[in-house]
Amino acid sequence: MEKLFVWGIVLAALVALFTGSAEETGAALLQSGQAAVALGLSLAGAYCLWCGVLKVMELSGLTARVARLFRPILRLLMPGIESNAEASEAVSLNFAANLLGMGNAATPAGLRAMKAMQELAGGAKLPTDAMCMFLIVNSSSLQLVPTTLISLRAAAGSASPGDILLPSILSTLCTSLLAVGLTLLVQRMGKRGEKGRAE
Amino acid sequence: MIVLLLTACAFCYAAFSGKPVYSAFVDGAMDGLKTAARAVPYVAAALLLVGALRACGALSAFGALLSPIAGLLGIPEELLPLLMLRPLSGSAALAELDLLISEFGPDSYIARTACAMMGSSETVLYTIALYLGSIQVRRSRYILPIGLITGLFSAVFAAFFCRFT
User: Fold this and answer.
1) DSSP one-letter code for A183
2) Per the CB < 8 Å rule, is A9 touching B49?
3) Neighboring chain A residues of B57 at a CB cutoff of 8 Å
4) Which of B85, B112, B141, B146 stands the most exposed, by the fewest C-beta atoms within 10 Å?
5) What pLDDT, on the 0 to 100 scale, is given for residue B117?
6) What is the mean predicted confidence (pLDDT) over A96-117?
7) CA–CA separation, A90 vs B57, rounded Å?
């Protein structure tokens, strides 16, 4: 993030100077800050509701039931997490909400999961393999029914707005498999590298 | 609808098992507020970067650079701006998608591919910034490259599947 951030801004500044769009770029910087705060406020509103509901579900043991459903998947993707109740429950809830297309409920659960996994790793300042896998799965879409897109197509006068469903599900499936596959590959290679160094 | 049902069911279930619903909810809401507040600076940094790169024109120049590769992978040229915006900004990508739909018509191959691609990808940079930011982690190891590759392939898969369905 460090390098990306610094060099990205430097690159933007250089390009802006050469193309004479320095004014617009400066204005964009100011606007982004404002957008972040506005976004933060609307996120905070949704988090209030969902974190509240999550806590209630957790207290009554409902989240433990959801976690049991996802246990085999967790064992495969993020070994070492399934023994920790808090982390595995939050991860399972995040996956469930994502599949249902409830992005605004998935994020609070996801952030709780990150926190629980960090505590599990003894307050790590570097994301663990489990955290990386979780984030990568979250940054490839899991949503099965793209409700926003269907309504967008309907609004534009599509003959059958729902016919996007099949290609969307197929390509969601493929990208998720690709993301998980690549991550497992990198993690295996990392482990082999560590072993090599130790010997 | 689903929000209301879920909330009501969760509350009923907890109340019937004799748990204090109200105090648990308030507790959780407090956690949620703190989490959101912690993540804002990280989100601001990500939006700043995206805003600057877009406004100065570097993003569209990079898109033009990428077009031969996109052609090889079977991604229509018209989708390049969307492909560039998608990992960076959800709202900008949605605006671009809307443009494509009105330009080519909702049932065209381009618009369908764009929709399938939107549906099978996420705002990678923002997700990473938010999730890592909320626990104050500043390094991301191999997450970003894999996220971006997956995002690129969402377009490849979408272009492929839309040809047959």
Assistant:
1) H
2) yes
3) 15-16, 19, 21
4) B141
5) 93
6) 86
7) 40
Kindly report the CA angle at B149 between A6 and A94, in degrees rounded to 5? 90
The whole-angstrom distance between A199's CA and the closest CA on chain B is 24
Shortest CA gap B69–chain A (Å): 19
Residue type, position B134, single letter: S
Q: How does pLDDT run across A156-199, given as a tens digit for each residue?
A: 888 888 888 899 999 999 999 999 999 999 999 988 877 766 65
Q: What's the rounded Cα separation, in Å, for the pair A129 and A124?
A: 11
Q: What is the token pair recorded at A193?
A: 């590298």
Nearest Cα residue to A87 out of A63, A57, A69: A63
CB contact under 8 A, B150 and A139: yes
Residue ranges of B 20-49 with Cβ closer than 8 A to chain A? 20-21, 24-29, 31-33, 35-37, 39-41, 43-45, 47-49
Give B44 to chain A, closest Cα distance, Å: 5
Which chain B residue has its CA at the smallest distance from A187's CA? Answer: B142
pLDDT of residue A199: 55
| Cα–Cα distance, B32 to B44 (Å, whole number) | 18
How far, CA to CA in Å, does A123 sit from each of A111, A197, B140?
A: 15, 25, 15
What are phi and psi for residue B27, nearest 5 degrees?
Answer: -55, -50
B40: closest CA of chain A, how far (Å)? 6
Q: Could you say which residues of chain B have pLDDT below 50?
A: none
Maximal CA-CA distance, chain A:
65
Query: In this complex, do B135 and A114 lie within 8 Å of one another by their Cβ atoms?
Result: yes
Q: How far is CA B126 from CA A73, B75, B150, B162, in A?
A: 25, 24, 15, 27
Contacts of A120 in chain B (CB under 8 A): none
Q: What is the pLDDT of residue A193?
A: 77
B135 reaches A (C-beta below 8 A): yes
Instruction: Specify the DSSP element, H or E, that contains A2.
Output: helix A2-19
- CA–CA separation, A156 and B106 (whole Å): 6
ipTM > 0.90 (yes/no)? no
